[in-house]
Amino acid sequence: MSSKKFQHIFLLVQVATVSVFLGRAWQHIIWDAPFRTLLWDESWMTSILPWFSNISYEDFITSQEMDEAIQNVIKANGWFYVTCAFITIFIKKIPRVFTYILWLGAVSLIFLALLYCKEKFFQWGQFWEYSLQFGSPIFLFYLWKKQEVSNRMILFMKIAIAITFISHGLYALNYYPRPGHFTEMVITILGVEESTAILFLNFAGVLDFVIAIGIFIKGKIGRWILLYTIFWGLATTMARIVGHFYLDMMEDTLMMWVHESVYRMPHFLIPLAVYYFYKKQNHEKNNLAF
Question: For the chain, how are helix, strand and coil distributed in percent, rounded to 5?
Answer without folding.
Answer: 80, 0, 20
